[in-house]
Amino acid sequence: MRIDVVSIFPSFFDVLEVSLLGRARGSGLLDIGVHDLRDHTHDRHRTVDDTPYGGGAGMVMKPEPWGEALDAAVAGRDDRPVIVFPSPAGERFTQATARELSTRSHIVFGCGRYEGIDERVFDYAAELGDVRLISLGDYVLNGGEVAAMAMIEAVVRLVPGVVGNPASLIEESHEDGLLEYPSYTKPAQWRGRAVPDVLLSGHHGRVAQWRRDQQVQRTRERRPDLLPPE
Ligand code: 6GU
């Protein structure tokens, strides 16, 4: 998988060198390019934004640097990319979105500031790839960088070979529509707190039933919106 990121804060993405993603990059499963939007400006001040036509608060990102940066992000490739613009005004990002994106060979993330990018950029981007505006949730971040990072991690760990044990991908929260069951390890007693007896019983059927019950109970308490209406 190839990922290109366009941002005015390219150093945010230095952290992609470490951990799971760093290993994926080292192993050749993942190739990431980070592009500084300001490298595609041509004025002395490297200007990326301007006041909005029609007035109003805040600044809007200018189209010309975005056009050049997106051209650079797709240059030399013959596969049609998906171009993701992280935006609080987008569709919600879910595990299903992550699964879909994990099947693509090339993803471009265009990280704008939350006030917005000139609307014509999205229209132009649709000539280069399949455009998606995607939001992490109903709250506002200053820019798309942190959101893109979260999406990259959620997507890349689903690429075959990136997570060492594929079984750990199947049992986790949101893959079966329920929250994860609680986990315990040794010691069996810790600071007056015991591990539930059923987990020490060695009875696989009862363990499985208990875990399923815990998943349903937790989901009902914490995320009733995930359950079918009663
Ligand atoms: Cl994707 N971007 C911004 N700027 N804020 C957000 C978001 C994205 N998702 C939730 N809040």
From TrEMBL:
Residues 210-230 are annotated as: Disordered. Its main location: cytoplasm. It catalyses: guanosine(37) in tRNA + S-adenosyl-L-methionine = N(1)-methylguanosine(37) in tRNA + S-adenosyl-L-homocysteine + H(+). It is an enzyme of class 2 (transferase). Specifically methylates guanosine-37 in various tRNAs. Homodimer. Belongs to the RNA methyltransferase TrmD family. HAMAP family: TrmD. This is tRNA (guanine-N(1)-)-methyltransferase. It comes from Microbacterium koreense. The lineage of its organism: Bacteria, Bacillati, Actinomycetota, Actinomycetes, Micrococcales.
